Amino acid sequence: MDLQFLRPVFECEGDVASVHLDTSRGPIDADKQIELRWKAARRSLGEQGAPAETVAAVDDVVGGAKDVAGPQGEALFASGGRILAAHTMAEPPRSDSAVHLPVADPLPLAIDRDHQLAHVVVAVDREGADVDAYPAAAAAPSFQRTFNGSTLHISRVRAGAVSHAAYHRRSVNLWSENTEQVAEDIREAAAEVEAAVILIAGDPKAIGLLREHLTTRPPAGRFVYVEGGRTDQSALDGLRASVDEAMHQAMLESHQQVLDQLDAQLAGGQALQGLNPVMEALSQGRVETLLLASDRNGDPDLTASRRDPLAVVSDAAALGDDAAFVAPASALLLRSAVHGNAQFTELLPGTSCEDGVAALVRY
């Protein structure tokens, strides 16, 4: 995953308030629940010495995406009385957090973004389809198209009816024409977001015809066939549930590919694990992909420099820098990775790696 979306929060020269909140919108008084969570986080920031104007800046924007139902989270970063960045998270953070540090601490946001893949959702039937394309981590589609082709003679007549063969041919032709247009919409949508996955649901016959059209000029992205459709609310609810499940599986498979690459490169001496070797490689700008476990309990404090954002050391004396500061390891490793143009992948739970830190490196 590209980390450059975090650059604005790491280019700040002063201390930063980093807030991660559960802003899920369920059926029961979501606004009140979010208000209580923010009140606790606000109190914590005050106890840590966050300036009143910085806390007030968060006051003005906190609350999540009110038009997005269901589970979600929010990541907010503020300094010097202004918001540096505000992000909606696809899933709530493991726990609410609010810290005021010399540097932004965006690991929960990075983990959430790392779980998202650009994808296209297609619900197809005999009349057409709904095609929605989502960039990675987007709550709303950037491309939407609803296609309803001609419905004349779209339903097949009963066997034995007058001219039933002609009607059948006309029906099949219309189905084919409709799905041909849908296939073109899918190609356009997949190109729009550089889709990793294309999820298709709906009428089996229409899906079969659509598959034929897509085979001639396949779009970028892997096809996954899921349950659900667009005929009614029940079908739409089923589609959402099956898409969520399929996207989770696609995320696990994507991560496993990186972990397999890590194992192979560790065996060949082209990757590193453990805090000290990874720190050194980051400081030299040699890290291609930084891998971190999401559970950073007991994360040690490290030292970094205002002047050299790549530098991360365990001993402040090694920097000889009067602009040095101390912060948790995960925040400083991410900062160095951003400025070194490294990619990022979570070390999934259950992955054995020294200190929960590893890196694919450039030689």
TrEMBL record:
Pfam families: baeRF_family2
UniProt lineage: Bacteria, Bacillati, Actinomycetota, Actinomycetes, Pseudonocardiales
Domain of life: Bacteria
Listed name of the protein: Peptide chain release factor 1 (ERF1)
InterPro entries given in the database record: Bact_RF_family2
The organism of origin for this protein: Saccharopolyspora karakumensis
